[in-house]
Write a structure and sequence with these properties.
Low-confidence stretches: 2-38
Helix content: under 10%
Shape: globular
Oligomer: single chain
Number of strands: 29
Structural class: mainly beta
CATH architecture of one domain: Beta Barrel
Distance between the termini: 26 Å
Mean pLDDT: 84
Number of helices: 2
Strand content: 35-45%
Largest sheet: 7 strands, antiparallel
Length: 395
């Protein structure tokens, strides 16, 4: 994923204010000069900038123009109907889409015109059985095939280059398991099935000089409870605990880390900044947890209610307040709040200062073209997902 330094064209949703603590403002030189809230302090600690911003961030009055829509065709190129950051990537002005049903990669120009497709369903070299993640850089295309337990490598034109074993367990089909940049891979590390102790998750950067943990592996929070009404015992992920969320762009990685509002940004293997909003570092009560699960229309094992699940399994008392992160033009950092936190999108400069917010209805970017246009998810009345090419106007 390669956001440019040119005119910013994409944004994120968020409207209210927030308190922020930041570590490290030296991610990229020449920080944005946009107007940021005046009530903030910056201190230096051992060469690392520490910034704190109080509540009261102004809402951004930006708008979005969807210029092109790709997908949703009856058959052939563009017939995919599922879109996520795991299935879409860009290089230059080309858009690469993983069609998980047709088991192929389709390539489109930024004006929506179809250019080529490659791979197909099968068990042979270069064929795909159960693809779950696509990643593209200027060196080529890589596709993680869960059934084969391997990353299949292709040139940008589609010639097969071979496969590398995938060293970790896959998670689910909506999750970006890895990203590649100039030969380095960033991978979400999940233990394969374990017999002693809990499975652990973490984020690792694999480069020529070894493996570097960006997120140290920690045990997945699970709880076991009996369900006499259906004669079963279930072990489930602790209610309200969040799934991992991260985004890489040109060697810079932003990852939501832990509960509450916390984003860590890395330049290569080095921590460059940390964004937190202290007002979200509060413990949920059981009543809070039940309300949050009800808002998600959560149904537990044996069709039990949120209240019953919380009573039997407990819950995460400090759930993530962040649903997604991205890195956009000018090195801006975009953070999408969880629905329980309002669903707004917060935008920060490359220097980690809050720029403002957009409402929850504003589309969250999947990727960025070199000219700054954003790729967004577009749904029709039948809930078919398509890729939109959009320009965000900073009114």
């Amino acid at each position: 994923m390669s956001p440019p330094d040119s005119e910013a064209i994409v944004v994120i949703k968020r409207a209210a204010g927030f308190s922020i603590a930041l570590i490290g403002a030296a991610l990229l030189p020449g920080c944005d000069q946009e107007r940021a809230p005046s009530r903030h302090t910056v201190a230096d600690s051992a060469g690392v900038q520490l910034a704190s911003v109080e509540l009261g961030v102004a809402e951004l009055g930006w708008s979005v123009d969807t210029l092109v829509i790709i997908g949703g065709q009856e058959a052939g190129p563009g017939s995919f109907y599922r879109v996520s950051p795991a299935y879409v990537d860009v290089v230059g002005d080309e858009i690469f889409v993983l069609d998980r049903v047709a088991k192929r990669v389709e390539v489109f120009a930024s004006d929506g015109s179809f250019r080529r497709a490659f791979s197909r369903e099968g068990q042979g070299p270069g064929e795909l059985e159960f693809p779950v993640t696509l990643s593209v850089d200027r060196a080529g295309v890589e596709v993680l095939d869960q059934a084969k337990g391997a990353i299949q490598r292709f040139t940008l034109s589609g010639e097969y280059l071979g496969a590398d074993p995938y060293p970790f367990a896959t998670i689910h089909v909506e999750f970006r398991h890895f990203d590649v940049f100039e030969g380095d891979r960033t991978l979400w590390r999940r233990d394969r099935r374990v017999t002693d102790g809990e499975r652990k998750d973490g984020l690792v950067l694999q480069s020529d000089d070894g493996d570097h943990f960006l997120v140290t592996p920690t045990a997945s929070p699970t709880r076991t409870a009996e369900y006499p009404e259906c004669g079963m015992t279930y072990t489930i992920r602790l209610p309200l605990s969040g799934s991992p969320s991260w985004f890489q762009s040109d060697g810079v990685v932003a990852v939501r880390s832990g509960g509450g509002y916390r984003v860590e940004v890395f330049q290569g293997a080095q921590l460059a900044g940390r964004i937190t909003a202290p007002e979200y570092d509060r413990e949920f009560t059981a009543a809070d947890a039940v309300r949050a699960l009800r808002s998600r229309e959560y149904v537990g094992p044996c069709n039990t209610t949120p209240a019953e699940v919380v009573a039997r399994h407990g819950y995460d008392p400090n759930p993530p307040a962040i649903a997604g992160v991205a890195i956009g033009p000018r090195g801006r950092i975009w953070v999408k709040r969880a629905e329980s936190a309002g669903g707004f999108v917060d935008v920060f400069t490359r220097g980690f200062e809050p720029l403002g917010s957009l409402p929850s209805s504003f589309p969250f970017p999947i990727a960025f073209l070199d000219d700054g246009r954003a790729l967004i998810e577009v749904r029709d009345a039948m809930d078919v997902e398509r890729v939109g090419v959009a320009r965000i106007r900073e009114n």
